[in-house]
Amino acid sequence: MTKSKVILADLDDMVFEDRERSYGAFNLRKRYPMHLTIATIVAGVIAIVVTFGPLIARNFAPPEEKTKMKVVTVSINMKDLPPPPAMDEDALPPPPPPKTPPPTVRTVAFQIPEPAPADEIDPEEEQTIADVDELKEAPNIGLEDREGADEVFFDADLFNFEEAEEDIPEVIVEQEPEIDEFIFAEEEPQPINMEDVRQLIGYPDIAREAGIQGSVVVRVLVDTKGNYSKHRIINQVHPLLAKAVEEQIHLLRFTPAIQGGKPIQFWVNIPFNFILLD
Question: What is d(CA 253, CA 78) in angstroms, rounded to the nearest whole number?
Answer without folding.
Answer: 97
